[in-house]
Amino acid sequence: MFTREEASHLRQEFWTSFGQYMNPVLSTDGMKINWINYRTTMKDIHFRMDNNSKTATVSIALEHNDPEIRELHFQQFEEFKTLLHATLQEEWGWQLHAPLKESKVTSQIYKEHTCVSVLNKDQRPELISLFKPPMIALDSFWGNAKYSFEALR
User: Fold this and answer.
1) 27 exposed, middle or buried (CB, 10 Å; 0-12, 13-18, 19+)?
2) How many domains does the chain have?
3) CA distance 49 to 7
4) Domain range spanning residue 72?
5) In principle, which of 6, 92, 107, 147 could form an S-S bond with 2, CB 3.0–4.6 Å?
6) Alpha carbon distance 49, 3 (integer Å)
7) Tens digit of pLDDT for each residue in 16-69?
8) Which positions ≥6 away from 108 have C-beta within 8 Å?
C-alpha cells in the first residue's frame, strides 16, 4: 500500500511522463496540443483519460448542467456513432446517465480497461498504449465532427 502522498506523487509522475511522451505528437490539424487536458473548444464536452487503482478509462464526457442539452449532445454523438467507432477501430460503451461522486450526472462514451494502474511502474508502458491510440483517434474524429456540435452552443 502507498501513502496518500506516495500515490499522488506516482500519479503526477505518470501524467508528466505521458505528457512528455505525447508532446511531439501533433493534432490532426498539425497543431501542438495538450493531450492530457484535451480542449474540444466546446464548454461541456471533454475527452478524458482516467486511472484509478484498478481501471484505466478513456472517455468522452458530456457534462452540461442542463439534462436536456446534455442529452442533445449525446444524441448528436449517436448520429456519429459509426464514424466514431470506425475511427477508434473498436466499439465503446455508451451511458446517457453516468452518476458522479458529487451527486452530479453526466453522459459518457467510454472504453474501460481493467487491472492496470499508474501506481504500478511496470504497467506504465501498457497504460500509455491504452491511452495514446484512442486519444489520437478522438482528435481525428473531432476534426471531422466538431462543426456539427457548434450549432448546439
Assistant:
1) middle
2) 1
3) 17
4) 4-25+32-150
5) 6
6) 23
7) 999 999 999 999 999 999 999 999 999 899 999 999 878 899 999 999 999 999
8) 59, 60, 61, 62, 93, 94, 95, 98
C-alpha 132/C-alpha 36 separation (Å) is: 10
Tell how far CA 77 is from the center of its chain: 14
Nearest to 57 by CA among 130, 118, 4, 6: 130
- Helices 67-79 and 81-88 pack at an angle, to 10 degrees, of 60
Q: How far apart are CA 138 and CA 111, in angstroms?
A: 12
Number of H helices, E strands in the chain: 4, 4
- Is the pLDDT at 101 greater than 80, yes or no? no
Place of cell 459509426: 82
* pTM score: 0.92
Cα–Cα dist 143/132, whole Å:
17
Fill in the DSSP letter of residue 60: E
Give the 3-state DSSP-derived string for 77-122, with helices as H, strands as E and coil as C: HHHCHHHHHHHHCCCCEEEEEEECCCCCEEEEEEEEEECCCCCCHH
